[in-house]
């Protein structure tokens, strides 16, 4: 009967670890997309259009660059909106925290199960050696 409970325990721990890894993966994808949006140069519209303006990255722009002057600031800023980016970052925080908790809980539970199995085997061996 205890074997059935151990299997259920291991299955539950593996499931928690899997969900944790999936949540961490989703949070990592969000972070990668946001990092790309902050660091990569972009254009303010259709690339085929002659009126398309090239904008430097939001993170690494030179202060005197013409694309960030007052007259063109809104064109470039409209493409990469800070509130939207902060919203995605805010969404990634609970995903990463929940993922870390689930993954750690599942991995720790599995490791404890392995340790207890090793301990039972060692105890059985020492008990068998004591009978001889």
Task: Give a quick precis of the structure.
The protein has one domain. The chain is 74% helix and 3% strand. It has helices at 2-39, 70-79, 82-131, and strands spanning 42-43, 54-55.
Question: Could you characterize the architecture of this molecule?
Answer:
With 132 residues, the protein is mainly α. The chain has one domain (10-131). 74% of the residues lie in helices and 3% in strands. It has helices at residues 2-39, 70-79, 82-131; strands spanning 42-43, 54-55. Helix 1 packs antiparallel against helix 3. The chain is rod-shaped.
List keywords for this structure.
mainly alpha, 132 residues, 74% helix
Topology overview:
Elements: H1 2-39, E1 42-43, E2 54-55, H2 70-79, H3 82-131
Antiparallel strand pairs: 1-2
Helix pairs in contact: 1-3
Number of DSSP helical runs: 3
Strand content: under 5%
In helices, the fraction of residues equals: over 70%
The total beta strand count reads: 2
Structural class: mainly alpha
Shape: rod-shaped
Write down the oligomeric state: single chain
């Amino acid at each position: 009967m205890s074997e059935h409970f151990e299997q259920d325990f291991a299955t539950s721990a593996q499931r928690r670890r899997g969900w944790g890894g999936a949540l961490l993966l989703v949070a990592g994808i969000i972070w990668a997309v946001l990092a790309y949006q902050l660091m990569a140069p972009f254009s303010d519209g259709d690339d085929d259009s002659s009126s398309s303006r090239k904008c430097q990255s939001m993170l690494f722009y030179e202060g005197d660059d013409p694309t960030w002057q007052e007259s063109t600031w809104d064109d470039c800023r409209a493409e990469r909106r800070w509130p939207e980016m902060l919203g995605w970052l805010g969404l990634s925080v609970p995903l990463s925290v929940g993922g870390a908790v689930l993954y750690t809980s599942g991995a720790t539970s599995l490791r404890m199960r392995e340790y207890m199995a090793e301990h039972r085997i060692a105890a059985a061996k020492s008990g068998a050696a004591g009978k001889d």
